Amino acid sequence: MTQYIQVAEIEHDEPVEIPSEDDGSLLVSTLAAQFPGACGLKYRNPDTGNFRGVRLSEGLLYPPDGVWGSHVYVVVFPKLQPAVTVPERSDEGEIHYIPSLCDNKRKGDNELENPSAKTKRLEQKKCTDLIVLGLPWKSTEDDLRSYFSKFGDLLLTQVKREPKTGQSKGYGFVRFANYDSQLKCLAQRHMIDGRWCDVNIPNSNEMNSPPSNRKVFIARCSENITADHLRDYFIKFGEVIDVFIPKPFRAFAFVTFLDPEVAQSLCGEDHIIQGTSVHVSSAAPKFPAKGAGERRDGAGVEIGIGTMGDGTGIETGTGSIEIGIMIAEVGIRDQDLPVEGILT
DNA sequence: GTTGAGCGTT
Questions:
Q1: Which residues contact A83 (CB under 8 A, 6 or more apart)?
Q2: Residue range A283-299, pLDDT digits in tens
């Protein structure tokens, strides 16, 4: 018959009573329902003062000596080793000296906190948007929020819909404020409104970007994001020397930084600007451009048009225009250059 | 009003 087992998240914390199965064993999934991400239990052995682990087999925890008794058990969570617990993407080969992506701090303001390098790396691991697959058609942003907030504070909830009908496409995105929330969330499946849903790091976050460029590509811009918004937002990471938004609206932009390091450090990240989650990636094209400048390595010719003076690139307005052609190890984005009509 | 693998109006 069912026993109730006292379990606390940390020792001396207030315990929660968790039901066993009829045979006395405890499903890890039952445990995880109260303590998301939990993978085991331990308890203090009164004889030695040491912690003792509870036996785990096939997703079931078994009571020591056959009875759970009146111990207060303590939840065991997976060690925070991202390489093991999280499906890593290729964008993590280097340490990012970023205290937290989510509060958007950068080098220069992190010297005082975070003593050990190892801790630092863990704490600094960035939160990305997470894709939630398999949502019920009726699930809303509010439903996502109320479900996922048990893992921690949320910075974004989004259900993707058909623009015309508003009908859900059955998936959405969430983003946590803290990386441990993200880890816990990724470690399990989710029952949302009667359906099992999967949470993953979206494939669209893959960043196999080639090296150094001061210009980054800002994807998923919404129409209400202006050049000033972008400049004001990104200035906190380093000096912004150009912002380019195509007209008419094309849902992307370019931001150029003075320091290529800054540009590179932002690649692969998601940022929330004017309530929209935008994605930063290298301004180099994913595929070689078609046509004249094409090369097998994706490099090509970049044609720049701009006014003289501050060197910040394309601007509008009157005045003399300088046309320059620069051979560079940068590819051409097709979006970059419908310029034939202007070269007169 | 239906559906059930996917990847966000480059």
A1: none
A2: 865 444 443 333 333 33
Q: Residue A74 in contact with residue A10, Cβ under 8 Å? A: yes
Spell out the residues 6+ positions from residue A20 whose beta carbon is closer than 8 angstroms to its own. Answer: A2, A3, A4, A5, A26, A63, A68
3-state percent breakdown (helix, strand, coil) of chain A, nearest 5: 20, 30, 50
Of the candidates A213, A215, A255, the one whose C-alpha atom is nearest the C-alpha of residue A231 is A255
What is the rounded CA–CA span in Å between residue A79 and residue A302? 47
Nucleotides of B under 7 A from a protein CB: 1-10
Per-residue pLDDT tens digits for A22-59: 999 998 888 888 887 788 999 998 889 899 999 988 77
CA distance A20 to A31: 9
Q: How far apart are CA A136 and CA A159, in angstroms?
A: 10
Residues belonging to chain A: 344
Q: Is A247 helix (H, G, I), strand (E, B) or coil?
A: coil
Q: How far is the CA of A251 from the C1' of B10 (A)?
A: 7
Among A110, A130, A107, A109, CA closest to A120: A110
pLDDT of residue A106: 46
SS3 of A83, please? Answer: helix
Buried b (16+ CB within 10 A) or exposed e, A147-183: bbeebbebbbbbbeeeeeeeebebbbbbbbbbbbbbb
Is residue A298 within 8 Å of residue A290, measured between CB atoms?
no
Q: Between the CA of A40 and the C1' of B8, what is the distance in angstroms? A: 36
Quote the CA–CA distance of A245 and A157 in Å, as a whole number.
26
Give the nucleotide with minimal C1' distance to the Cα of A173: B8
A194/B2 CA-to-C1' distance in Å: 19
pLDDT at A43: 93
Cα-Cα end-to-end distance for chain A: 86
Structure tokens at A80: 């925070």
**And the tokens for A339?**
């310029």
CA distance linking residue A335 with residue A254, whole number of Å: 11
